[in-house]
Amino acid sequence: MRDQSAPPIFDASQARSDILGAEYLSDGTNFALFSDHATAVELCLFSEDGQTELHRLPLPEMEGGIWFGYLPGIRPGQVYGYRVHGPYSPEEGHRFNPNKLLLDPYARELRGQIIWDDALHGYTIGEDDLSFDDRDSAPFMPKAVVVDANFDWDSDRALRTPWPQTVIYEGHVKGLTMQMKDVPEELRGSFKGLAQPALIDHLQRMGVTTLELLPIHAFANDRYLVEKDLSNYWGYSTLSFFAPHAPYLKTGQIREVKEAIRAFHKAGIEVILDVVYNHTCEGSELGQTLSFRGIDNASYYLLADDRRHSFDTTGTGNTLNVAHPMVLRMVMDSLRYWVQVMHVDGFRFDLASTLGREASGFERDGAFFNAIRQDPVLSGVKLIAEPWDIGEGGYQVGGYRWPFREWNDKFRDDTRAFWRRDPGMLGAVCERFSGSPVQFDHSHRPATSSVNFVAAHDGYTLWDTVSYVEKHNDANGEDGRDGHDHNLSDNLGAEGPSDDPGIEAARIRRARAMLATVLLSQGVPMILAGDEMGNSQDGNNNAYCQDNPISWLDWDAARPELMEAVAALSAFRKDSGLAHTRFSGKEGGPAVEWLHPRGDHMGDADWSDADLRLTGMRLQPAFGPASLIIANAGDDGEFALPPGNWRLRIDTARDSVACDEPVSGVLPLGWQSVVALTLAD
């Protein structure tokens, strides 16, 4: 039922087609929506709680596929949505249905959540997707809210931490604080909780410079998960590219995100976002109509040759059509919004290969990547690609151009295999210590092109890598079919938790060594939240649907031996100038020597020795002292040091990892350990 009071009247003299979304201007709001194939667009104004539709107003103007109008008197706080008219011709790619309330793709703030109901589908459930459903979906839809972008940033500025000094910490807004007792209970799991001193102080102690947050864009809790009493915990099912996920906001207002970012910046910590521009939560042609599908399905999505079906390279049912200029503009507008208005410091692009798909397949010089590279705002922030998708030719590690950095799963796999003591892994792990030059030393790319990690949100945590042989995903309700089996893990004597002191000591020793490999290699280190304290997910390597203690960090179970190690390793990395911008052997880059434990250079026969698990990397920068990193994946051993006044700075075999003592001659090495030395003057 709609309000019968007099509707507001558009003012054509102030209407603008150049700014999309709902933009509050002086004493009114400009509304603009792109739909190239629509025949009409209705703006629907709702009551403050989003429950009552007050007015339906046809947008009076259209230019270039942009429907727009200016409404005087409409101020921040106004709740709204759209109904879009046009042909319902699924076999031609068009799925317009004005019975479905649609979310503005440029919505900055949302009111309400998706309530799963068959009315959210443009076709009739139980029939095929060529049928037409005439039920109103508004009661089940979240709505957009007009916002005021003004905020007192208190001289906040971008930190621009140089890549060689960057240490990334990948975490989840909710999971970081849900079990953190030093955060007030009522704030846990939110941006307000995230910005509390307890978490910020911890990150500073660990040497973290950059917090990378799993998706915070508004996302859907998929229906099939809700019906199983699960939820989309990770958030890789985007509903809106501008609005933050409402459950992370205590007041529902976007200023909470700004306040958190401001707090991190004051502490010297950058904030970057994991963003999902490759697909949306609407699924395949059999999915729901929430926004893009009903606004202009044929423009916003890639379609199969028959036009009826979605073209899916993401495994989610649909693929966003970033090759379309207006869809590309939406993505670019979203990225610039988060940088310029919300002050984030960069992005990690989920399934980035999808964003580079052109007619001929993946294209490293595709429209999306070139648009970012030339953009004066975006080209200067941190840009990280997840360099794969599930489509043909989608695996592209090393295939991106500067200024993109890339997640390096080769580093993860080779590091795990080396410390698991797999034979013949020495050469591979030395490549990883060197910054993976085979993959990244081309096209004028720097040595910081590789983002090095041994664990990320997807897969085992570090502690589970040393505690489980088999995945334990029963809680996901998929009979163990989900999650990959290539974990390169080893339980070191018992599957799961163990009260055996020997097993616990072995796990700590190996975990320290792997953390040292991440933090002492060339490239950019990334630590999964909780790995610095031995956090476990009970062997679940696909906890995407576990919004519960399986995924939340267990601060009470933190292992101080690991936290001390990470703090010491981060400090050494920073103080020693270990990280370099240029690859070894390049002008301005460090000289590198690989040393056999007997004290001379590694020879061809040494590299082919499948049983050799001990080597040393000597780095000599153009300026400053040399460093020597020794990795021993085997038993107790010895290493003949090169001549010079060496000082032992790191030894992961010791109870206290940090040290500073002179050493010379033959250095004894503990089993499964990493040591770092610097050459004194």
TrEMBL record:
Keywords: Glycosidase, Hydrolase. One of its GO terms (molecular function) is amylo-alpha-1,6-glucosidase activity. Pfam families: Alpha-amylase, CBM_48. SMART domains: Aamy. Residues 473-488 have a biased composition (Basic and acidic residues). Residues 174-573 form the Glycosyl hydrolase family 13 catalytic domain. One of its GO terms (biological process) is glycogen catabolic process. InterPro entries: GH, GH13_cat_dom, GlgX_Isoamylase_N_E_set, Glyco_hydro_13_N, Glyco_hydro_b, Glycogen_debranch_GlgX, Ig-like_fold, Ig_E-set. CDD domains: AmyAc_Glg_debranch, E_set_GDE_Isoamylase_N. Residues 473-502 are annotated as: Disordered. PANTHER family: GLYCOGEN DEBRANCHING ENZYME. Belongs to the glycosyl hydrolase 13 family. This is Glycogen debranching enzyme GlgX.
